[in-house]
Amino acid sequence: MAIRANPRLVEELEHYGAEDVAKCYHCGNCSAVCPFSREPFLFPRKSMRYLQMGLEEKLLGNLEPWLCYYCGECSEECPREAEPGETMMSMRRWLTSRYDFTGISKLFYRSWKAELAAILLVALLTGAGFLLFGFRWGGGHLGVYAGEGAFLTTGAVHVFDWILGCVLAAFLGINCARMWWFSIGKDRTLRIPPLAYLRQAFLLPVHFFTQKRYAECGKKRPWAIHLALMLSYTTMLVLIMFFLHAMHSERTVWAAHGFGYLATIGLLGTSIYALRGRIRKEETHYKHSHETDWIFLILLVFVAGTGILQNVLYRVFHLDVAANVVYVVHMMGVVPMLGLEVPFSKWAHLAYRPLAMYFSELQAEAIRERERAVAAAGAPLPA
User: At residue 124, what are phi and psi to the nearest 5 degrees?
Assistant: First the structure.
């Protein structure tokens, strides 16, 4: 079957942050220095080749950009300064936009103004909705933060959280299914038995909760920052979805609040660290920043900061009116972050990375089995 090339693929990837792709002349230094570059995944060199040749379909089914954690060594060793690490990052953004069936990711990654406008619109609608509920339908009072007569009842907010969570899960689930189809499902040369999916399923929680592959890059600090950010966000999400009553209780529930404070500090600290790194540009993986990186980090700082402020206003200073106002402002950041960033932008990486580790192991196993079968039959390997 003929392979179609897209001559404008490099130009398209430039909208997602790719730089200096044409400088690459495939010396192989990047793949040689990468600790994860091994058969059948020889990156970044092979991915760079797909891009330069305009092999869009091969790039779409390629998991290698997700197997890269951008330690920066490939860019440091590149004699042509072709920035292979940053190109792999741009490929992840491009792949995210292709997995997304709605086209929202593509819009966001190609136009930071569109993403910012969407965030502001959702924030304003969220604020108006919560205020309308509190003043008109909730039956509470702005001067009451928790308990009987609360301006925003925990039960109503909890229902809203679950509805939003189900919508997000649906969008992200469909996009993850598309990721499977592009990388594994439509490849007729791969034969993956159902039992293999079950046998390798442990990779999903292992890589999600430990980010162990990043730790193997040899740079412990970036891994620790990344892990702290991911665990802090996951902890906060679990608290909001399952322990909101304890978080908003009139009495102090230290088990819930302890985890909440730790998660908030983790989000705030890691976000500020990443912002500082992108401003100073001292580390290789911080030298280049896409607009969506800035929006993502600023939104995280906003959400974490307002989360701490509304809790302090209520718990420490007993200023219920101020706490309610700040809580509405806080939700104006939370809803866009969950509703837009999780399924369509940066946060989607939390799902795609462990899935890529899972799918890549299934791919590698199937490829090895196929090669054994072909060798036994004495036939040439498929292209």
Answer: -65, -40
